[in-house]
Amino acid sequence: MSPQPVISLEHISVSYGTKRVLTDVCLTVGEKDFLGIIGPNGGGKTTLIKTILGLKKADTGNITYFKDGKQVPQISIGYLPQYNKIDKNFPISTEEVILSGIRKGLFSRYTTDDREAARQVLQQMGIEDLATRPIGTLSGGQVQRALLGRAVISKPSVVILDEPNTYIDKRFEGQLYHLLEDINRESAVILVSHDIGAVLQNVRTIACVNETLDYHPDTELPDGWIEARFNCPIDLIGHGDMPHRILKSHKHR
How does pLDDT run across 181-236, given as a tens digit for each residue? Predict the structure, then answer.
């Protein structure tokens, strides 16, 4: 039995001015999916994410959202962007950054349950000792953990991570994918990354974006599949349980 869909993209095309970035993209993300999106720089990965989030309007096509199998106007989506600029002088603590992922009315206060959820997320991210620290005093990797906590605290239907290894410190990098496994028990996960080896080791399905989108239902990719989608030759080498990718020397096209 196929999982219920949470997002459906039908024949999406997106342009910036006269430049077409995405063409006739179709994709369905199901409940508890763990989808890896790969592709060359400039191939449209981030544009696809912005379109799903509603930050970029499609020229043509439709995006449909679902909750419990029923079509809805929108769903909750947690988002960890690739680049995060934090005003180091802004007076907000790490805990408050995470709490901001719980959408409240302008004059609403955080409840005891909200703060308990934040405490659990702080612990989950390994930054519980930084709860009261101003966010501007944290390292790039610590900020990224706090922002990931903000993305997941409300237990959204989908969590989207755009190049999550950016700014992640090496100590946390190994823990990140174990953490995503936990998150995936409650939310679908969409992971955008240029790190093909890490993606194929951890996700369950693959989409390659290079203006168009090619979907692969698992991570056992046939010979030549990545080469064809990236438009450059790539060798696939098996090495224990960890897939590796090696780029041959080649001229840029």
Answer: 889 999 999 999 877 777 777 888 989 999 999 888 876 666 666 666 666 544 44
CA 211, CA 50: separation in Å to the nearest integer?
Answer: 14
Give, in order, the Cα–Cα distances in Å from 37 to each of 49, 103, 114, 142, 196: 10, 28, 32, 25, 9
Contact present, 36 and 218 (Cβ < 8 Å)? no
Sign of torsion over alpha carbons 167, 170, 172, 175: positive
Pair 199, 163: CB distance under 8 Å: no
171 within 8 A of 189, measured Cβ to Cβ? no
Q: How far apart are CA 93 and CA 136, in angstroms?
A: 8
Stated pTM of the model: 0.84
Q: What is the SS3 assignment for 193?
A: coil
Tokens representing 102 are 């719980």
- Give the pLDDT confidence of 101-150 residue by residue, as tens digits: 998 766 678 899 999 999 999 999 989 999 999 998 998 888 888 999 99
* Separation of alpha carbons 57 and 169, rounded Å: 34
d(CA 244, CA 201): 9
Report which of 80, 48, 102 is spatially closest to residue 189, judged by C-alpha positions. 80
Structure tokens at 147: 């922002």
Distance CA 78, CA 180 (A): 13
